[in-house]
Amino acid sequence: MIVPVMAVVYFAITILVIVMNIGSIPGVFARIFQEAFGFRQVAAGGFGAVLMNGVKRGLFSNEAGSGSAPCAAAAAECDQPVKAGLVQALGVFIDTIVICSCTAMIMLLAPEEKVAGLSGMDLLQTAMEHHLGRFGVVFIAATLFLFSFSTFLGILFYARSNVAYLFGDNWISQTAYKIIALFMLFIGGLAAYTFVWDLGDVGIGLMTIFNIIILYPQGEKALKELKKYEESKKHRKERPEK
After folding, report:
1. 36, 47 in Cβ contact below 8 A?
2. What's the whole-model pTM score?
3. Which of the residues in the chain have pLDDT under 50?
4. Engineering a disulfide at 173: which of 37, 85, 116, 167 sits with its beta carbon 3.0 to 4.6 angstroms away?
5. CA angle 74, 164, 187 (to 5 degrees)
6. How far apart are CA 180 and CA 174, in angstroms?
């Protein structure tokens, strides 16, 4: 329940920030389109860089196509696999379009002179401090901790399930997995964030390539199941009228 609650609270705080800076909204959207599609950006290859970086960060955000999210979906009790798939599709929208857009609005609504030269969490913390003072800094720190902690638990669950499938659910395989996970966590906490991002990009990219290769032959079957589900849902709606 941590993630849904924090997502709702984060969205509410963003709405508050937007209301407080409602007059700056047109300028923010103008800046977004100018920076992404302006002549200077196109000539310098900026659009391609923005697109590539968006795809990479999007995969981290929503895991779409990488094959990791189904580990969580498969653990849910559901009478129709199509329902699980639709919920997962909604999760992609919420993760990337809603939550990531909230972060972008918080940062873009801050005065440019206050956030110049900053990036990453320093940029977000400074922007939130401008909007909500000390409360904003504490809120972002707490939100980041809870999101990171819940993500860590989720990834550990994914990995444990896959290790059990590949090597058996025994003491040796699970102990070895836990030691490796702790070692990687330690390295990730000490390494430069650019190295961690690059390593993550390679891992997620390989996962996505392999997963899409496997999924492609199943696409026709998935579409058939979706059509069956839509037809059965349509018949259930029409039945009371007869």
Report:
1. yes
2. 0.80
3. 242
4. 167
5. 100
6. 10
